[in-house]
Structure formats: structure tokens, C-alpha cells
Design goal:
Layout lengths: L1 H13 L6 H23 L3 E7 L6 H5 L12 H13 L3 E10 L5 E9 L3 E10 L3 E13 L4 E10 L1 E14 L3 E13 L6 E15 L3 E15 L3 E16 L9 E14 L7 E16 L5 E14 L7 E2 L14 H6 L6 E2 L1 E21 L6 E19 L11 E12 L3 E12 L2 E11 L4
Parallel strand pairs: 1-3
Antiparallel strand pairs: 2-3, 4-5, 5-6, 6-7, 7-8, 8-9, 9-10, 10-11, 11-12, 12-13, 13-14, 14-17, 15-16, 17-18, 18-19, 19-20, 20-21
Helix pairs in contact: 1-2
Length: 452
């Protein structure tokens, strides 16, 4: 356009009969281009520095390595939002916000402000687990150990379960997103549907790596001993390598508005105490997708999940899985020993399980951070409220061929989600269950974290 205006200007000089309206339009274009550039520069100032406010325990480099917005370019709000989401997904902040701080030279500072969640959490609390019942937890949990986003858990459990755990996780141990985790634990409890008392001891170590921010591979190896005490004692010793592959495009892990999450998990069990060595393979695949048709602080989100898990190779009743419970088909309680022994609901047990879930999540009170005093110092956490409508379908069979002849278990109901520090969400789901067109039961279920 500028070259056209230049040619038109010179033609006017040598041809006085050419109308002046063209020159007037060219002048308007050139002036609007000049002022438009100044306006764009004003709206999108160049970022000359990045600042972080609110750090108390967290090392600064933990934040800096997650911020990808370049310096000396005009601010890109979409890149800044991605940086903000990555900081929130660390799970160590109750709130993350950002703003621009203009400077006298016309550039701006990109300023991130964080509110750290509680990092040291002494544990002395009664806890209910639907598979183990009530027990008391004693211990401590460090959610941001040494200020390096490390997780360290040391706890003991007494009551319906006797156990201890030592867990350590570092999501960026060295190199480019190379993680390490180990777990040493022992627990004794009553199996919820098998007529045995179960004792488990294990040591496990995992090493993982991110490829970009969406792909992750984790490889691990586990040494485990399982014992089942009943009329007789049955023992299993395993040496178990496993592999996890993840593809994750969610914006916020705890409450996504968009994206998908694909998860593959394979584990090979080599039985060390069999006369003739046997092996078992466990396989799980999960697909989740999220979309928010109504966006904003009080957003509405649609979520869908399909989860398939199977056991192949050497297997017996100790390897059976079941359907029902807060992380399975909701509206159904977990099966009891009576249900398993009388076979009145045999369709709830199998080596192959497929579960699909659909949720409509509505934010009622947007998450907010707060601080309250305590004997151990100020507790920094978050609160909010989200309601959910859900429907779950599940099938449990022993072979793939049985799928076509099986009717699905159905559960539908409502739930609430309350965001809390460290755990993510406290979840209550109340639902009704149906099978073959008949109403079965209703159940109020308690859980930690989103179902998917």
C-alpha cells in the first residue's frame, strides 16, 4: 500500500488533473499505520525483565525453569497463561497471578505473584478408606521439601490397617525434567472381599523424563512380597519392572478446562517362589478429555473418561478385580466378602474391567487462598466449591469374548468437590446404581482427588 501511495503522489505532481481524493486516502492510511504501530506498542509492551514475588520457602530456580516467555519481545498473554498454569500445576502454590509493571523506558516487567501452600503437614488424624475402613495416621508430610518441589512422606497407620510408608519424589532431579521417586512400605489389613488377611511389603524405585511438557515416560522396578492368611497361608514374591507412558495437554491438572490425558501402564510380574517360574502381566489404559463450554471463574466443564485394565498370564482369585466404589462405578459400594462368597453379584468381579465416566462440573465458588494461624505456624491453603453430575458404566469379565454377553453396571448421581492444599480435592459423591434395568442400591462415597 505504501508503494501505491508513493506512485500516486508523484503522478499528481506531473498530472494536475488527477483527483486529490486518492492522495487524501493515502494520507489517512499512512497516518493510521503510524499511530496504529504506536498503539500496538502501547498495548503490547516489550518484556525486559521477569520478577517473582511471594516466595518464602521455594527456591527461585524452581519457578524460573517453568517460565518460558522470552525476554525482549512484546508480551504474549497466551504464553504467560501457559507459564502461570505450569506454576499452578506444581502443586505447591495456593494461588498464582501475574501482571505487567511498566518502566520509564517504555518496556515492562512481567511480574508473577505466588502464595505458597503449607509445606510441612504434621499428620495425626483418623482416616476412612473404603477398602480398609477406619484407621489413625501418625506422621509428617513435606510437600515442598527443601524448597525444591520434592515430596517426602513418613507415616504410620494403626487401626483396621497396620502400616508404615516412606515415600520420596523429586519431579526434576537432574538434566531436562528427569524425575526420581522411591517408596518403601509395609501394611497388614483385611482384604475387602477375599476371606483373607493380607500382608504386603515392597520397595520400588522409578525414574522418569518429560519430553517437552506433554509427553512423559516413567520406568520402574519393584520388589514385593504378598502374603494371604486364612485357613492356609499363600505367599507371592515378585520382581516387577513396569513402564508408564503419558500424553497430557490439560491446562490445569486439578481442574482442567480443556485438553486430554492419555495414560498407559504395563507391569510384568516375575514370580520368584514358584516351583515352575510363572509370570503375570497387568495392563491399564486410560483416556480422558475435557472441554468448558462456559468459561471464566464460574466455569462449566464436560469431562469424559474410559479406563480399561486387564490381568493376563498366571492368575487366580488373588488377582481378581472388582467394580464399585468412589474410584470405580459410583452409586455402588465396594463389594463385601458376603457378596463375593454367595455369588449374588458375580458380574462385579473379573480379570478384565472397563469403566466409562461422564461428568458435568460446575464451579460454584472459585478457588481462593487463605491463611490461618496454628501451633505449627500459619497454615496456607485454598478453598472453593464445585458441584458435579455424573454417570458411570462398568463391565467386569474374565476374557474379551465375554464383553458382548455382559450387561453394564450403571451408576449415576451428584457430587461436590472442595479444593484443599496438597491433596487437590476432597470429594463426596452420592449416587444410585442399576443393573439390567433394576435398581440395586444407593451410596454416599468419600474420596480424595478427581476421579479422572
Amino acid at each position: 500500500m505504501e508503494s501505491i501511495c508513493n506512485r500516486y503522489f508523484f503522478k499528481i505532481i506531473y498530472n494536475k488533473n488527477r483527483p486529490l481524493i486518492g492522495l487524501f486516502l493515502c494520507l489517512i492510511f499512512l497516518l493510521s499505520n503510524i499511530f496504529g504501530q504506536e498503539t500496538d506498542s502501547y498495548k503490547n509492551p516489550v518484556i525486559s525483565a521477569i520478577d517473582i514475588q511471594g516466595l518464602q520457602n521455594t527456591k527461585r530456580y524452581i519457578i524460573e525453569r517453568e517460565i518460558q516467555h522470552p525476554l525482549n519481545i512484546p508480551i504474549d498473554s497466551s504464553l504467560v497463561e501457559q507459564d502461570r498454569n505450569r506454576l499452578e500445576n506444581l502443586g505447591i502454590f495456593s494461588k498464582v497471578t501475574w501482571n505487567e509493571l511498566p518502566l520509564e523506558d517504555g518496556t515492562s516487567i512481567l511480574n508473577f505473584r505466588v502464595i505458597e501452600s503449607i509445606s510441612l503437614l504434621p499428620i495425626f488424624s483418623p482416616v476412612y478408606n473404603e477398602e480398609m475402613g477406619w484407621f489413625l495416621i501418625l506422621g509428617t508430610r513435606l510437600n515442598n521439601f527443601r524448597g525444591r518441589n520434592e515430596k517426602f512422606l513418613l507415616r504410620g497407620r494403626i487401626g483396621n490397617v497396620s502400616a508404615y510408608d516412606v515415600i520420596f519424589k523429586n519431579p526434576w532431579f537432574f538434566g531436562d525434567h528427569v524425575s526420581i521417586a522411591f517408596n518403601f512400605s509395609k501394611q497388614i489389613f483385611e482384604h475387602y472381599f477375599l476371606p483373607y488377611r493380607q500382608a504386603t511389603r515392597e520397595f520400588k524405585i522409578n525414574i522418569g523424563r518429560y519430553f517437552g511438557y506433554e509427553k512423559q515416560l516413567i520406568a520402574g522396578i519393584e520388589l514385593k512380597k504378598k502374603e494371604y492368611f486364612g485357613q492356609d497361608t499363600t505367599s507371592f514374591y515378585y520382581l516387577s519392572p513396569d513402564l508408564i507412558a503419558v500424553y497430557d495437554t490439560r491446562d490445569i491438572y486439578n481442574d482442567p478446562s480443556k485438553g486430554m490425558y492419555i495414560f498407559y501402564y504395563g507391569k510384568y510380574f516375575r514370580h520368584l517362589n514358584q516351583i515352575e517360574p510363572e509370570s503375570t502381566i497387568a495392563w491399564t489404559q486410560s483416556y480422558s478429555a475435557y472441554y468448558s463450554p462456559i468459561k471464566g471463574k464460574r466455569k462449566t466443564t464436560l469431562g469424559f473418561n474410559l479406563n480399561i485394565s486387564s490381568i493376563t498370564g498366571f492368575r487366580n482369585e488373588y488377582w481378581l478385580g472388582s467394580l464399585g466404589g468412589v474410584n470405580s462405578v459410583r452409586g455402588w459400594r465396594i463389594p463385601s466378602r458376603e457378596i463375593y462368597s454367595d455369588q449374588s453379584q458375580s458380574y462385579r468381579f473379573g480379570y478384565l474391567r472397563a469403566i466409562s465416566s461422564l461428568e458435568i462440573r460446575q464451579t460454584i465458588i472459585p478457588k481462593y487462598a487463605f491463611q490461618s494461624p496454628s501451633y505449627f505456624g500459619p497454615i496456607r491453603s485454598e478453598l472453593g466449591l464445585q458441584t458435579t453430575l455424573f454417570i458411570d458404566l462398568g463391565i467386569a469379565v474374565n476374557t474379551w469374548e465375554d464383553l458382548s454377553d455382559s450387561a453394564p453396571m450403571i451408576g449415576t448421581g451428584i457430587g461436590i468437590r472442595i479444593p484443599v492444599a496438597i491433596s487437590g480435592n476432597v470429594r463426596l459423591d452420592y449416587g444410585w446404581s442399576f443393573y439390567n434395568g433394576e435398581y440395586i442400591e444407593r451410596a454416599l462415597l468419600f474420596g480424595i482427588g478427581q476421579k479422572f
